[in-house]
Amino acid sequence: MSNDPLVIFTPSGKRGHFPVGTPVLTAARQLGVDLDSVCGGRGICSKCQITPSYGEFPKHGVTVAKDALSDWNSVEQRYDDKRGLKTGRRLGCQAQVQGDIVIDVPETSQVHKQVVRKRVEARDITLNPSTKLFYVEVEQPDMHEPSGDLERLVRALRTEWDLPELFADLDLLKTLQPILRKGEWKVTCAVHLEDRRIMQIWPGFYEGSIFGLAVDLGSTTIAGHLCDLATGEVVASSGIMNPQIRFGEDLMSRVSYSMMNPGGADEMTAAVRDGMNELFAQIAEEAGITQDLIMDAVFVCNPVMHHLFLGIDPFELGQAPFALATSEALNLRAAELGLALHPAARVYLLPCIAGHVGADAAAVALSEAPGKSEDLVLVVDVGTNAEILLGNREKVLACSSPTGPAFEGAQISSGQRAAPGAIERVEIDPMTKEPRFRVIGSDIWSDEDGFADAIADTGVTGICGSGIIEMVAEMRLAGLLDGPGLIGSSEQTGTTRCFLDGRTYSYMVWDDPERPITVTNRDIREIQMAKAALYSGARLLMDKFGVDSVDRVVLAGAFGAHISPKHAMVLGMIPDAPLDMVTSAGNAAGTGARIALLNTKARREIEQTVHNIHKIETAIEPRFQEHFVNASNIPNAVEPFPILNTVVSLPDVTFNTGGGGGDTAGGRRRRRRG
Amino acid sequence: MSNDPLVIFTPSGKRGHFPVGTPVLTAARQLGVDLDSVCGGRGICSKCQITPSYGEFPKHGVTVAKDALSDWNSVEQRYDDKRGLKTGRRLGCQAQVQGDIVIDVPETSQVHKQVVRKRVEARDITLNPSTKLFYVEVEQPDMHEPSGDLERLVRALRTEWDLPELFADLDLLKTLQPILRKGEWKVTCAVHLEDRRIMQIWPGFYEGSIFGLAVDLGSTTIAGHLCDLATGEVVASSGIMNPQIRFGEDLMSRVSYSMMNPGGADEMTAAVRDGMNELFAQIAEEAGITQDLIMDAVFVCNPVMHHLFLGIDPFELGQAPFALATSEALNLRAAELGLALHPAARVYLLPCIAGHVGADAAAVALSEAPGKSEDLVLVVDVGTNAEILLGNREKVLACSSPTGPAFEGAQISSGQRAAPGAIERVEIDPMTKEPRFRVIGSDIWSDEDGFADAIADTGVTGICGSGIIEMVAEMRLAGLLDGPGLIGSSEQTGTTRCFLDGRTYSYMVWDDPERPITVTNRDIREIQMAKAALYSGARLLMDKFGVDSVDRVVLAGAFGAHISPKHAMVLGMIPDAPLDMVTSAGNAAGTGARIALLNTKARREIEQTVHNIHKIETAIEPRFQEHFVNASNIPNAVEPFPILNTVVSLPDVTFNTGGGGGDTAGGRRRRRRG
C-alpha cells in the first residue's frame, strides 16, 4: 500500500494516492474526475473550485487533518480579493495535497454538469457542448526547428489538453500571427471538438463566454434559445413569425407555391434565412452579446421547412413516395446557409425520420425518449401536421398525420390564435345547457362577478385552439352534439342557444350583438377531421404495435401544454387512458434542439435512434381510412373508451332525423382528397 | 485442386480458379487485379478492355483453347460498331471464363496506370487521383422504408464500389433529386475519395472527363497544367505573369509593400487570385472545356506567395525568426480562395519546409526525391531565391539562399530575360580573346556564315541568364577576368575589347554602334554575389552533412535547364563534380505539383518527407558569411575544385594593381546588408 496521501473525490467516489505536493487539479485529472479548467492550472480561470472536507469519514475510512491541503496561497488570495471565493472553496490548481483528504467537486465546477430542465418528469441534460474554451501557452518560433505558428498552437493544445490534431479556417489563419504576439504567446482558443477546428483565438485569457443557439423552425413561428455553452444556461429566447407565411399558411400550400412559381423555392429559402438572421439579431441584442460569439447552432424542423431552409426544392415532398433529398443529420457551416453568426460557426440539423416525419419529430424523440420508456407511451406533437410516436424499450413507431390548422383556431368561424380575449376554458351545464368560460388574460369565469371588468380591455374576441377542444367536448357532454357530430335544434336540445344557421344548427356561446361568438356545425366538422386524423394516426401505430391501449400519453407542442386531457379524450382525439397519465411536454421539439446543442453525445444518440424508429406512412396504410372514418365520431364509432367512461358519461343522443344532413367529416374528407 | 478454369492476369501475374461463366472483370476484382471500370460491369464505359492470349504458355503452365472465353456478345458488338474495339480486345465485363485463360490488362485499362514523364531519369507517376467517376444504379424511394435520395445514392456507391460513407455539399443536394429522376435512377458520380465527398452527379452514364490543375505560383510567373484525372494526360498548359509584380519585383519588396500600405497584403491577395482565375479561363479555353469540370487543384509556391495567396499578411516572413502562419499541407475549397473552378473543387497546397523554404521546394523534393537517392545529390532550384536540397537515403537537408535576380538577367547592364535575340551561348578564344556566341532563335554562331541573316529579325538584344553565366566563365577561362573578379585592362589582357569604363574595365562583346553589348565589372560583381549566395548555401548543407563533395548535382527551375554545367562550375556556382553528373530537372516544382495532383499518395509521402527534412537557416549560421566571402572568388578562394581542374585550366591572373580597386562583392554585400 502506498504511503502517499489518499485523495477521495465526491460525488464521483474516485480515489487514489498522490505524492505530497500534488495539486488537487492534477489528482483529479489523473483519476478522470470531472473537474473543469480553462486555463490548465495556471490560477487564472477559477473554474476548478473545489470544497475540501475535514474531520472523520468512517464511510471513506479516512480522517482528514486540518493541514491536509497546502495553505491558501497568493493566487487564491488575489482571486478572492478580486472576485470573492465562496467560503470553504479552494482553487483546485493551487491547493496541494499534504495528507489524506476528501474533496467535493461542486456542480458548477464540473465540465459535464447537469442542466436542469424545468419539467419534473424530464431528464436532465448532461453538458457536453461542441465548442469549449482552452487557454494555452504556445512555443515561440525557432529558426533551428522551423514550424508554423498554427502547428505550434495545435501542438500546445495537444500537449496541454490532450486534444487531437486540430485545423483552422483561413479566417483564423489571417488573425493568428498578430494575436499570438499580442498575447505574448498566451492565448485562449475556442475549439469545436467534433469538427476538430479552432474557431477563434483571443490574446491572453478570455474572460467572456461563447454561445450556441437552439432553433425550432416551425411552419408558423421560428423560436430560438441562446445558451451559454459553458454553463448550459438559456441566456435569451425569442421568436418571430416564419416569413414564409406570405407564400402559404400551411406546408402543402408552400410546396404548391414552389411548383407554380419558377424560383419560388429560392424565394422561400431567402425569406426563411432572412427571418432567421433577424431573429438572431434580436436574441443577441436581448442577451447583450455580438452575434459572432455564437459558434454553434442546432435546428429542428419538419421536412418541408428542412428542405426550404437548405435551399432544396421541396417538390418531391408534395407527392408520393415523399422522397427526402437527404434524411441523415447534417453538419454544415452557418456561412453556407447565409446565417450571420460567428464566421466559422457550425450548424447541426437533426435527422429526418421520413418524408412526413421530420427533424422536429426526431427532436421530440430525443426529448421524450419513448425508446427508453418502460411503459408504452404515445407522444403526440400537435400542430398543423401531427407527429406521432409510439413506443417503449422494445421498439418505437412513428408516423405523421395531416391534422390541418383547426387546432390552431384557423378555419373555425370564431376561431383565433391564442391571445388575450380568446376563450380558452369552457364548461357547459348539462342541465341548463348554459356555457361559462374563461378568456386568456383573466382568471374570472364568465358567470362570476367582475368578469365584465376583467375583459373590459380585450372583450371576448374568439375561441383559441384549446378552447375549441373544450367547447366541442363540453357540447358533446351536455348533449348539444351527437356522436356523429350534429348539433341539435333548440327543440332537440331544449335550449334556444341552438339555432338554425343555414342548413344546420349553431350554438350561441356569447351573445354580444356586436361580436357574437357561436359554434357552427361546420366548425364541428373541422374539429372532427382534425381530431380524426390525429387519432387514426395513433390508432394505426397501436395496430402496428399490436396493442389496443397505451400506458400514457404525452402531448407535445406549445399547444399541447394547454389542452385539457379530459376534453381531448371526450373528443376522441387521443386514445383512452387514465387522465393522470396524459401529460404535457411543452415545446418538446425545442427542448430536443437544446439537448442536441448542449450535448453532442445526444446527437449521436438521436442519429442512432432515428435509424431504429420504424416509420409508418399513413397514406399507404389501408386501415388508416377506416380508422379515420370511425374516429370522425365523437369520441369514436367503434372504440369503447372504457377508462373515459368511468370519469364522464356521454349522453346517448342522435340528432340526424334522416333528412339527408349527411355532411359528415368522412364524406367531406373523401371529396377533398379526391 | 479446383476443377474450375485457371485465370492468369498479366502483367501482374495474379491467378486464380473461377467457375465457368465468371466475367473476366469479376475475376480481376476478386484477385485485386488493377482493371478499370466506371460503369461497374454494365458494358457501358468500355474501360475494362482486356486482351486474351491463346495457345501454349509453358511459363504459366497452361494451354489456352480458342474457346477459353465466351463468344463475342451483342454488347461488345454494339460497342465495336459504335466506337471500334481494337483487334484482339474484349470487354472484361462481357467476356466470361470458359476454360484456362491468360489475360493481359493493357496499360490503358489500368486504374493506377503509369503517367510517363518526359525526362529519362525521372520516375513515372502512378495515377491515383483524388477524384474519380463511378456509375451506379440507385434504389428508388420506398414509403415502407423511407430514406433520403442521398442516403440511397451513398448506399449504392458503397455496395457497388466499396466506397466509404460519402457526403455532399448543399449545392449537390439542390440538384440531386431532379438528376436522379432524369437518369431514371442511373447516374454517374464524381467522388473526391480523400474528402469522401460526392462532387457532382450526371444523369445516366457521363461520357466526358474530369480535370485537375497543377499550378506553380512563382513570384514572377504563374504556370498551370490542366490534367485529365482519368488518364493523367496534360491536356493544356499556360502561364501568365504574376500580377503582383506591380507591387514589387521580388519577394522582399512585396513584403515591404504590405508593411508600408495598410490593406496592401489584401490588394496583393486579390491580384494573385484574379490572375489565377484569368489563367484558369485561358487554360480551360485552350482545352475546350468549362472551368466547372476542374475538380481538384494543387498549388506550389514559396512562403511569401503562399501567405499572400491564402490572404495571410506575410509580415512575419520579412523578419527573423521568419515564422510561417502555417507550415503543414493545406486542404481547402477552391471557393474559399475565390477560385473559379467547380463549385465544390478542392485545393491542395503542399507543405512549406521553413519560413524561407516553401511548398515549391517541397515540390522539388517530391519530384527529385533526394531522400530516395542512393548517392548524395545536391538539388538546386535556381531563381531569385534559390532553394537547395542535399541528401540521400540517410537524410535530407534544405536551405534557401537569396541569389537575387541577376541569374534572370536583371541588374546586369546588358541583361535581359530569355527571348529571341538574347545571347545564350558564349565561347571566348583564350589566345585571341575574341568572343563567339549564339542567340536565342538561331543555331548559327556569330562567327559563322549566315549569322547576320539569321539575326536580321531580332538583332542581338542582350544577354540572358544562362548566357551571362557562360560569358563570365569564359572570360575567366580566357584570362580576361581574375579570381577576385576584376576585368583586366587591354594592356593586362592583350585585347582592345577590354576598355576603361569609369573606374573599372569592361569587355566589349558585340560592337554594334547602335546597341553595343558589354560586360561591365559591375555586372561581374552582381553575378559573383548571386553565385556566391548559391554556392555558400550548398556548401553550408555539405558542412552540416559532413561532406566535402557531392556525387551529383541536379539543376531545377526553367533556368536550370539552360545552364551549361561546365560554366556553372567554372563560376563556382555549384560544387565540384563530374560534369556528366550535373543534370537538369527542368521545372521540378511544377512536376512536383503534377505528381501531387495525379497521385494523392504522393501528398502523404511529401508531408512525411517534409517532416524529415532538416532545415538550415542560412541567416543564423556563422559559417554562411565565411563561405560567401570565399565563394565570391571565381571559382572560389579556398575550394580546390579538383575534378573541374581535370577538364579546364584556369589562368592564374591577377589584375588588382593595389590601387584600391577593392570594390569586391563581399564588401558590397556587407554594405548592402548593413
From TrEMBL, chains A, B:
Q: Which GO terms describe its molecular function?
A: iron-sulfur cluster binding
Output the superkingdom of the source species. Bacteria
Q: Where is this region: Disordered?
A: 655-674
Name assigned to this protein: Uncharacterized 2Fe-2S/4Fe-4S cluster protein (DUF4445 family)
Domain RACo-like middle region, first and last residues per copy:
211-366
Q: Which Gene3D superfamilies match?
A: 3.10.20.30, 3.10.20.880, Domain of unknown function (DUF4445) (3.30.420.480)
Residues forming the RACo linker region domain are 121-207
Pfam families linked: RACo_C_ter (PF14574), RACo_linker (PF17650), Raco_middle (PF17651)
| Residue stretches making up the RACo C-terminal domain | 376-643
**Species name:** Litoreibacter ponti
